[in-house]
Amino acid sequence: MPSYGIEARREYENLILERARVCTKQPEYAYQIKIPGSVYLKERNLTIRLSVINKDKIEFNVKNKDCFDLDKIKLPLVLRNRREGDWFQPLGMSGRQKLKSFFIDHKVPQQKRNEMMLLADQQSVIWIENMHLNEQVKITPETVNVLELEII
Length: 152
Known about the structure:
Blueprint: E1 6-11, E2 14-19, E3 30-33, E4 37-41, E5 46-53, E6 65-69, E7 77-80, E8 87-88, E9 97-98, H1 99-105, H2 110-113, E10 118-120, E11 125-128, E12 132-133, E13 146-151
Antiparallel strand pairs: 1-2, 3-7, 4-5, 5-13, 6-13, 7-10, 8-9, 10-11, 11-12
């Protein structure tokens, strides 16, 4: 049966119909980023800036900004997309979870998973773009040094 250039796929409870496209795998990218510093991601056409701020200057619930306890981060930091075996400790959880399982639990479409930016330290993924922060680097009353990430 001819497809007329249309493809169908299921994303959880949705049926998606769209023009067939050539499947191109999102290329892997990784950028080491210094503090303070910024990096331009040509793959996403945006810039990520990291800076150290005073704890009293934290702006919570601001789109395109997240804050971390800098003293809990195992430097260096790398801004990248996902890799096989990545794990993450979601905010509020005591245990860690494979990133693949986390994406499935949050119903992130498979095609979007390789596009999402991650910030990773030497130990694990500490931030998932527009989604979640790692429990291990959250701001607490004991936090002294705050790292602010801003998407520009």
